[in-house]
Amino acid sequence: MRIVIVAAPDRRRPVAALRYVSRWLFRCFHLLGLAVVALGVFSAVALPGDPVLDLAIIALGLFALAYPTGVVAALRRQQRGYAPIEIEYEIHDGGIITRYADGEEKLRWSDLQRAALLPDLLLLWLARNQYFPIPVDGLTPGERAELADVLDREGLLNRPRRGLWTTSDPAAR
Question: Which residues does the UniProt record annotate as the domain YcxB-like C-terminal (predicted)?
Fold first, then answer.
């Protein structure tokens, strides 16, 4: 098996990857922000007390609501400092070879912790908070199925995150 993907520079790809990777954190911030704003509004309207404290509670909730937008904006600002380069990814049975203008990098499947195959991206985790997106929207259905088979065979697709315990974890604690 050999799949070659040539990735042209795309500023939307890292943003989409960040939104996918941080989706639960962003949802928690949104829910927390809504709850805190609702608490502040309820306190300001229905309860007698200090209006400055009520406004501070509402401001804290608005900050929690705006935090995910700030994280995405920070990523976009960070991207402006990088020169756009074209990257070629060669995916084969042994791993992934990444080629760019200054050289190449080889990753074995065993170097990766897990993977997520999305409709337009393949996300590969090297460490808990270190991942990189590969565009897969140009793959044929056959290549996509072959890629999914390789990732599944290597145990990367449904591998639980290390160091986290969940209720669906089959290992007894």
Answer: 92-148
Tokens of 161: 């995150």
Residues in the chain: 173
Tell me which residue has tokens 């990777």: 21
Using H for helix, E for strand and C for coil, what is the string for 162-173? CCCCCCCCCCCC
Region of residue 155 (phi > 0: left; psi between -120 and 50: alpha; otherwise: beta): left
pTM, full prediction: 0.73
pLDDT tens-digit profile of 119-159? 889 999 988 888 889 999 888 899 999 999 998 888 888 65
Task: Reply yes or no on whether the pLDDT at 163 is more than 80.
Answer: no
Tell me how far apart the alpha carbons of residues 161 and 127 are, in angstroms, rounded to a whole number.
10
Q: What is the pLDDT of residue 101?
A: 86
- Candidates 133, 83, 99; CA nearest to 6 is 99
Categorize the per-residue pLDDT at 35 as very low, low, confident or very high, splitting at 50, 70 and 90: very high
Q: Is residue 93 a contact partner of residue 150, using CB atoms and an 8 Å limit?
A: yes
